[in-house]
């Protein structure tokens, strides 16, 4: 890519905070502000503030917006109540995952689809193509929103001081419009950290004021700015997949152990949706003869597995591949998510190793997630 | 950041102390430590091992990546920093002091070691 990376509305704020920046999906984003381990621990124990303005928002409106999304996506989107959100996926006709998404129903005939930055154009193009014949409009709203997340156990307390919105009534995977620090926002109780938290969609022009208000409101409880590096270790501990790692166009939701997001019992459009036939076969295969399964691996040693490293059996045979790996601040050990041959995928399977640059290091096979918060 | 004047530097971001009885202390620079992020594992060479300038003699693992540790000179390893092996975060918190990595008895030096000012200019570029 030759284009200069895009900068979010909070770019100057990040630089003033001394952030180490990184190119991510064409955006210049904060990787970390200080120690990524400290940022990780802050989100697990107190609160962290993230700029996620690179995420891609697409608005779908019209009398048949729900029908279009039921056809274009694998989930039952018409069944989502206004003010609620749903984790779902968009697949190719061959069942391969194009992206994983959160869809918010903002009104009876209005949805906001939030795509990964790296896939936003693919999702926009696919939705536009699939919209033919539906009385619904697709709007590219990537530049209409900045997205600021407050994550961690202290986040409800921080937000309560800045809004009159009914946060206690706002359940996980729900969203409502409201004012936060005097700024119009869509307040969503969603996140990608394994903690309670909120994602605030606001106008880019309001982003700096909101960031500063949150920083001030969170100072007394230890809120810190957090970069994408700790976001990755937080989601990894929480067992949440990342597109390009656990999810690719060569994997189906069933391969990734996320077949529950595919709803074959949809009644709209005669039950038809893009990828249905291929996904039915993938469901059958996952049930009867799964090729590989997505598992968690915990290191016995200290060397860190990385994406792409082979998983091997005691005799050195390759039995899988690491998709994500990092030192886990919470466990104090390296962890990984890997696709492993079904015969070796049961938790507790003996003799599973990761080939770390030629050295076969022992790993414990566990069920995901590595970390689940106490509610 | 300040690169101590009394040290010399490699283009692979190691620092080298002035030799005493032919032995120098080696670590990675603050610039390198900041670029790596939190260091979580350090694999150091064995005491007695022979190392060659510009060649890998160990590894540094951080949250996001693994990097080779290069020897800045030819020589024999005389001591490694066991404190850093057990607490790799010393590389981040004190790269020029408690985060030193190993001591080496120098048998040969490359010609392209940098002064502090040269290294500062090198990393600014």
UniProtKB/TrEMBL annotation, chain A:
* Entry keyword set: Aminotransferase, Transferase
Residue ranges annotated for the Aminomethyltransferase C-terminal domain, each copy included = 292-372
What catalytic activity does the UniProt entry give for this protein? N(6)-[(R)-S(8)-aminomethyldihydrolipoyl]-L-lysyl-[protein] + (6S)-5,6,7,8-tetrahydrofolate = N(6)-[(R)-dihydrolipoyl]-L-lysyl-[protein] + (6R)-5,10-methylene-5,6,7,8-tetrahydrofolate + NH4(+)
Instruction: Give start and end of each GCVT N-terminal domain.
Output: 12-266
- Keyword Plastid found: no
Keyword Phosphoprotein recorded: no
This molecule's function is given as: The glycine cleavage system catalyzes the degradation of glycine.
The Swiss-Prot or TrEMBL record describes its family as follows: Belongs to the GcvT family.
On assembly, the entry states: The glycine cleavage system is composed of four proteins: P, T, L and H.
Q: What is this protein called?
A: Aminomethyltransferase
List the source organism: Streptomyces albospinus
- Please name the gene that encodes this protein: gcvT
From TrEMBL, chain B:
Sites bearing N6-lipoyllysine, chain numbering: 64
- Keyword Metal-binding present in the record's keywords: the answer is no
Looking at the record, the residues that make up the Lipoyl-binding domain are: 23-105
> Which cofactors, by name?
(R)-lipoate
- Enumerate the UniProt keywords alphabetically: Lipoyl
Question: Domain of life here?
Answer: Bacteria
Q: How is the cofactor bound?
A: Binds 1 lipoyl cofactor covalently.
Q: Does the keyword Cytoplasm apply?
A: no
- A Pfam family assignment: GCV_H
Family annotation (Gene3D superfamilies): 2.40.50.100
Stored SUPFAM superfamilies? Single hybrid motif
Tell me its family. Belongs to the GcvH family.
Q: Could you describe the subunit structure of this protein?
A: The glycine cleavage system is composed of four proteins: P, T, L and H.
Summary of the function given for this chain in its UniProt record: The glycine cleavage system catalyzes the degradation of glycine. The H protein shuttles the methylamine group of glycine from the P protein to the T protein.
The entry's protein name is Glycine cleavage system H protein
Record organism: Streptomyces albospinus
Tell me the lineage of the source organism.
Bacteria, Bacillati, Actinomycetota, Actinomycetes, Kitasatosporales
Q: Which gene encodes it?
A: gcvH
């Amino acid at each position: 890519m030759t284009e200069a990376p895009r900068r979010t509305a909070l770019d100057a704020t990040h630089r003033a905070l001394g952030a180490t920046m990184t190119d991510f999906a064409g955006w210049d984003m904060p990787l970390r502000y200080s120690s990524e381990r400290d940022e990780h621990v802050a989100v697990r124990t107190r609160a962290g503030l993230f700029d996620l303005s690179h995420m891609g928002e697409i608005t779908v409106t019209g009398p048949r917006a729900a029908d279009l999304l039921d056809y274009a996506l694998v989930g039952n989107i018409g069944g989502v109540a206004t003010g609620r959100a749903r984790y779902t996926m968009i697949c190719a006709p061959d069942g391969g995952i194009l992206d994983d998404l959160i869809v918010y129903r903002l009104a009876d005939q209005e949805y906001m689809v939030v795509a990964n930055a790296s896939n936003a154009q693919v999702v926009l193009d696919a939705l536009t193509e699939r919209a033919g014949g539906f009385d619904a409009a697709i709007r590219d709203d990537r530049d209409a929103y900045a997205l600021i997340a407050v994550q961690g156990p202290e986040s409800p307390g921080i937000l309560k001081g800045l809004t009159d919105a009914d946060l206690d009534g706002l359940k996980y995977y729900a969203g409502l419009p409201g004012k936060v620090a005097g700024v119009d926002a869509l307040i969503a109780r969603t996140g990608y950290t394994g903690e309670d938290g909120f994602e605030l969609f606001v106008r880019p022009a309001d982003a700096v004021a909101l960031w500063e208000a949150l920083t001030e409101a969170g100072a007394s409880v230890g809120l810190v700015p957090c970069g994408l590096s700790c976001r990755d270790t937080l989601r990894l501990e929480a067992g949440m997949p990342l597109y390009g790692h656990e999810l690719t166009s060569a994997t189906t939701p069933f391969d990734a152990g996320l077949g529950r997001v595919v709803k074959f019992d949809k009644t709209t459009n005669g039950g038809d949706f893009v990828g249905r036939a291929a996904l039915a076969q993938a469901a059958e295969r996952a049930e009867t003869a799964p090729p590989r399964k997505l598992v968690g691996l915990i290191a016995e040693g200290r060397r860190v597995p990385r994406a792409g490293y082979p998983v091997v059996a005691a005799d050195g045979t390759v039995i899988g591949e690491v998709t994500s790996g990092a030192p886990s601040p919470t466990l104090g050990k390296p962890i990984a998510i890997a696709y492993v041959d079904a015969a070796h995928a049961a938790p507790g399977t003996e003799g599973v190793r990761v080939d770390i640059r030629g050295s076969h290091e022992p790993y414990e096979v566990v069920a995901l997630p590595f970390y689940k918060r106490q509610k | 950041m300040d690169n101590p004047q009394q040290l010399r530097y490699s283009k692979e971001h190691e620092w080298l102390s002035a030799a005493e009885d032919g032995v120098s202390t080696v670590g990675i620079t603050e610039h390198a430590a900041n670029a790596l992020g939190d260091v979580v594992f350090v694999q150091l060479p064995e005491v007695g091992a022979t190392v060659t300038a510009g060649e890998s003699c160990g590894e540094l693992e951080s949250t996001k990546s693994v990097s080779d540790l290069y020897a800045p000179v030819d020589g024999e390893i005389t001591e490694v920093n066991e404190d850093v092996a057990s607490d790799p975060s010393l590389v981040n918190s004190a790269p020029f002091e408690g985060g030193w990595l190993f001591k080496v008895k120098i048998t040969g030096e490359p010609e392209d070691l940098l002064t502090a000012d040269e290294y500062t200019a090198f990393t600014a570029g």
